[in-house]
């Protein structure tokens, strides 16, 4: 076998691989000899088939198998011998001429194919002891814990029937019938519907007109459906609702005690406070880590500057660009609405793709040299988290990760990255700084600098996620409303 380098330009490589016809024939003969005792051909006893006849019947099919095996296995072997790593799956090309292919399968011509790929550049690791990061920490006071408990307790709040007029915060029980142009419409009717005034569950103007009514009152109210209302036959239309109030109930005071804790599934008020405090700490901790990680990546980006494999950059850019356009489409916006142009946005997101690829290679090299690994248990927990987020779709998700090439890597990559960041945190200088929650949650303008000129709202946030912050999992659909009528009135 002869390997000839035909291109070495930047990170691009192209090799011409030539396997002489006599070597191919020798391989074929070995394979035929192995199958001689296994084949069954009418007119011949097992193992007594003449070699020439065997070659005539099976030679080309065996040669085709050899060709497939060689193009599948040799590129990896050759790159290993050259001490190179391909950034993506190498591209293999061979003759498409039928006559030439027939000569190769007949061992009358050398088998030639080309291997085109981009190498992963050699990365010389730099000293990171000079990296300095500030870890912002929030002190959680008792008032914030209490406030959060009260918000959670709203779901467990009880109501007691009262006499007199309904006020904001009261729960009214009503029957209603909606009409457009005097005609009732589908989904516009409900009986014994419970509505907390001020909750803004129903369309604008609906709840406000119920304030001041009392049990037994009847009233016709007029509202206008929003222009963007999902039901096209109602969007922007004026409608009336015939209302009958059947009950008015006042909200009971919420007290943080053992009874409330029991309603929320915990054994005591102290345990409730402990759990809520832990949840708040976790939320702030995630933001703290996100900011610390961004600082590390920004400084690594300054330390490491090298050419990146363009195929990796192209693939990363395509992923980003697809998400950007999906977000804009869902929001009903254009690049002009985001104070940019498509051309400028492409340029900015191309830079972002290059940064992400470069940092990914750096983190991979750091992790490899540090001996960072991802265990089977960690992979299993990551898979379970995917299953938990999509109840009812467990089989499809498992099938996807089992049968889709590279799918498992999408589970491994974020775990590996977080563990590399943990390793770096043990080597860089970290200074803790106590801040208010407002300071912690403030937008990180400097950290978002690479996307300032691109669509900078939802789209930009998602595009930045994978370069430092943990990317959000696909969100589940919101649960359906209890009754169809609510969908029309809400």
From TrEMBL:
<dbReference type="GO" id="GO:0015031">
    <property type="term" value="P:protein transport"/>
</dbReference>
<dbReference type="Pfam" id="PF00254">
    <property type="entry name" value="FKBP_C"/>
</dbReference>
<dbReference type="GO" id="GO:0044183">
    <property type="term" value="F:protein folding chaperone"/>
</dbReference>
<dbReference type="Pfam" id="PF05697">
    <property type="entry name" value="Trigger_N"/>
</dbReference>
<keyword id="KW-0143">Chaperone</keyword>
<keyword id="KW-0963">Cytoplasm</keyword>
<dbReference type="InterPro" id="IPR037041">
    <property type="entry name" value="Trigger_fac_C_sf"/>
</dbReference>
<dbReference type="GO" id="GO:0051301">
    <property type="term" value="P:cell division"/>
</dbReference>
<dbReference type="GO" id="GO:0003755">
    <property type="term" value="F:peptidyl-prolyl cis-trans isomerase activity"/>
</dbReference>
<dbReference type="InterPro" id="IPR001179">
    <property type="entry name" value="PPIase_FKBP_dom"/>
</dbReference>
<dbReference type="InterPro" id="IPR036611">
    <property type="entry name" value="Trigger_fac_ribosome-bd_sf"/>
</dbReference>
<comment type="function">
    <text>Involved in protein export. Acts as a chaperone by maintaining the newly synthesized protein in an open conformation. Functions as a peptidyl-prolyl cis-trans isomerase.</text>
</comment>
<dbReference type="GO" id="GO:0005737">
    <property type="term" value="C:cytoplasm"/>
</dbReference>
<feature type="region of interest" description="Disordered">
    <location>
        <begin position="435"/>
        <end position="490"/>
    </location>
</feature>
<keyword id="KW-0131">Cell cycle</keyword>
<dbReference type="InterPro" id="IPR008880">
    <property type="entry name" value="Trigger_fac_C"/>
</dbReference>
<dbReference type="InterPro" id="IPR008881">
    <property type="entry name" value="Trigger_fac_ribosome-bd_bac"/>
</dbReference>
<keyword id="KW-0132">Cell division</keyword>
<dbReference type="GO" id="GO:0051083">
    <property type="term" value="P:'de novo' cotranslational protein folding"/>
</dbReference>
<dbReference type="Pfam" id="PF05698">
    <property type="entry name" value="Trigger_C"/>
</dbReference>
<comment type="similarity">
    <text>Belongs to the FKBP-type PPIase family. Tig subfamily.</text>
</comment>
<dbReference type="GO" id="GO:0043335">
    <property type="term" value="P:protein unfolding"/>
</dbReference>
<keyword id="KW-0413">Isomerase</keyword>
<dbReference type="InterPro" id="IPR046357">
    <property type="entry name" value="PPIase_dom_sf"/>
</dbReference>
<dbReference type="InterPro" id="IPR005215">
    <property type="entry name" value="Trig_fac"/>
</dbReference>
<protein>
    <recommendedName>
        <fullName>Trigger factor</fullName>
        <ecNumber>5.2.1.8</ecNumber>
    </recommendedName>
</protein>
<dbReference type="GO" id="GO:0043022">
    <property type="term" value="F:ribosome binding"/>
</dbReference>
<feature type="domain" description="PPIase FKBP-type">
    <location>
        <begin position="169"/>
        <end position="270"/>
    </location>
</feature>
<dbReference type="InterPro" id="IPR027304">
    <property type="entry name" value="Trigger_fact/SurA_dom_sf"/>
</dbReference>
<keyword id="KW-0697">Rotamase</keyword>
